[in-house]
Amino acid sequence: MINLVDYKNERQYKTVFFETFGCQMNKLDAELSLGLLQEDGYSIVDKVEEADVILYNTCSVRQHAEDKVYSHLGALRTLKKKHPDVIIGVLGCMAQKDAQSIFKRMPHVDLVCGTRMFTRLPELLLKIRNHGNHVLAVDEDEIVDVKRIAAYRPNVYQAFVTVMRGCDNYCSYCIVPYVRGREVSRTIADVEREVLELVSNGCREITLLGQNINSYGKSLPGNITLGDLLIELNGIEKLERLRFVTSHPKDMSRDLIRTMSQLDKACEYLHMPAQSGSDRILKKMHRGYTAGYYRELIQYARDLMPTIKVAGDFIVGFPGETEEDFQETVCLMEDIRFQNSFIFKYSTRTGTKAAELTDDVPDEIKKKRNTTLLDLQKKISLEENKKLIGRKLQVLVEGASKSDPNKLSGRTRQNNIVVFKGQPALVGTLVDITINEATDLTLFGTI
Ligand code: 5AD
Ligand code: SF4
Question: Is the full-model pTM beyond 0.85?
Fold first, then answer.
């Protein structure tokens, strides 16, 4: 155990460079980690050359994401030689997965900190400072319990809140259950406490996060569901909007869709990955539903919430995917008319079930299928967005627009980005915007 007095006195490493890869949960873990480090006296710098501590929060979902981190780490060899006191750390999914082998491959790395240990960062960094390098912290039984320090939040009006971690689904291609562990849900009271604090600090929109959010509550006593959590949070005064991601079609209940449609704060938005439109491939993916079931679920949601928008994920080039299989995916995309889709080329992950199959779709075909889906999605997004021209939509103003700092930007309940002219004082409020122009990614309008 570290003596707290020594800890405070010996703290010398004051600046931190932090880069994060991967999903929204990683981004939130980064925000929470930086909150802890700032509370501990660190300031954030945006150049590695200025940092005493360099941390990468990593993703393992595809090989490409890992290659990027290893190449960043390799590039730090010279810096570490020149400045041996600089601490280099790998956090997150790749740390959990590759553990000790990261030190073998990159001996200049000092810290490998898994997906459940980031709450101990200040303590771990001190350990390296006092006792030398190569600290490995990848305990699988650790429960993540972190006090959110609202003062360090980058966006006051919109926040993500993790309600469950891990995944028990074991889709055949996916590494997440191995690096994020079994599903663990936070209690409703715990989540509510965090949301209340965020709201009292000005937050108006909350997105609940979970790798497999429809399984929220399964690890808790008393048949708690995500619907129960939504009902509870919907009662919070001054909170305007609630979203949740990511939904699994197999676990998405009609009850939950009905509950969404009945709660005024629950937004008409679903992120529900389909992954493929071919039943043969869905079966090989161990997804537990058919394309027909997916279509019915969306139809049910649209019957209850006609304005609902759906975002999807797709994997192209899964082992054995034929042209016919792929055409069924094209067909599903055309039928559902997603608001946007994240499209990935299949990447073999060692240790998963699908890694036992031959990765037999050549890369050129994967690329071609990827481009075909991207182009189709772009066309659908543009057509759907154009349908909104002339409509008046409620927008939560988030801040200055990234593309034009003289304008403001915000989101609709359906998660469309809207850019418009307005006073900075409107930031954090809800305004009605009449849409008069649309691209595939952005709506433009006037108050
Ligand atoms: N290869 C390609 N894409 C993958 N995803 C998950 N695992 C893999 C993999 N091995 C995609 C899925 C998931 C998203 C987060 O990443 O579409 O929904
Ligand atoms: Fe991975 Fe499937 Fe779990 Fe999503 S539901 S995190 S794709 S195993």
Answer: yes
